[in-house]
Amino acid sequence: QVQLVESGGRLVQAGGSLRLSCVASGRTFGSTAMGWFRQTPGKEREFVAWSGSSTFYVDSVKGRFTISRDNAKNTVYLQMNSLKPEDTAVYYCAASGSYYTYRGPWDYWGQGTQVTVSS
Fold it and tell me: 75-80 and 34-39 as β-strands: parallel, antiparallel, unpaired?
């Protein structure tokens, strides 16, 4: 069993920056692929970023978002720069059963943290 707890979401103006954090427990973190997803009301959950054997991003955030991890702290981060109103969503951290692909399976999820970008 893996527990994931996100934090860092808040209201920010367009063009601003935020860093989300996700602390994991219950599994050897260094060998676990981690990812970030987001969801807005009425839409499916969308993949945002992955950190495993490498990193991968959805096209809409490339060059603006960076996923990183501190294995000593069992923490994965999502640095979000140049935020846009369309980045507004609940952001979820997830742990994958495969270290070598961003496609998952995504076995464990956090509770989510709200990011709101005002125009």
Answer: unpaired
Res. 47 pLDDT band, cuts 50 70 90: very high
Distance (Å, whole) CA 65 – CA 83: 9
C-alpha–C-alpha distance, residues 85 and 87, integer Å = 5
Cβ neighbours of 1 (radius 10 Å)? 7
Instruction: Show the CA angle centred on residue 18, arms to residues 4 and 91, nearest 5°.
Output: 40
CB 65 within 8 A of CB 57: yes
**pLDDT tens profile 8-44:** 999 999 999 999 999 999 777 888 899 999 999 999 9
Can the peptide bond before residue 85 be classed as cis, meaning omega within 30 degrees of 0? no
